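Handout, page 2. Input:
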Amino acid sequence: MISVIIPLYNHADSILKTLISLTRQSYQDFEVIIVNDGSTDNPQSIIQAFQAHNPNIKLKYIEQSNQGSNPARNNGFKEASGDFLLFCDADVVLRKDALKDMLEALLRYPEASYSYGSFRLGFKTFKGRAFSEDLLKKEPYIHTTALIRTKDFPGFDNEIKRFQDWDLWLTMLENNKKGIFIDKILMDIGESRHISVWLPSFFYKLFPNNEKVIKYNQAKEIIFKKHHL
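Output:
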């Protein structure tokens, strides 16, 4: 079984699409664990209505004070029963075969600890790349929403506020845990919250004093220092 863990903070406008995409999966042996991280936009009514209309979906709903997405993910993990974990943000819409494709990859490659693919963010496709230790040590290129073997999951670092996925994959690499790439687009991510975060690569070179670039480089330096890169 797959445990789908969804940290939720003020995404009442998108959580329903995420949940509906789960009901449409070609692979249906999963549970859903939603961790409401102190949202102020009243997602409870949406989740209750969804559960009422989908009683066959195994769903756990947890509330906590606002602590951040990594504590929410870790608290959701404590409630997980599956042999596999999928940390799915509340603005992610999974393609129909996403769970099936990721699970089949892990069953086909038992030496891999997680499987991941490509995704669309608004108008842009982020093409994934084959797993590379050297590349992973240089830049983040694997999204948080990857399928992880529960036995290999080390937990998220509650102190990391940015590049949380990159930090996780580097931590797993230090434990000799590696990923396998699926050459497919597995999900779509809503652009309303994230499209402003993405900047083309040339922007970082041309505008080093831009506030977003400065914060990006500061966060990257934290990851480099932690993992001795």
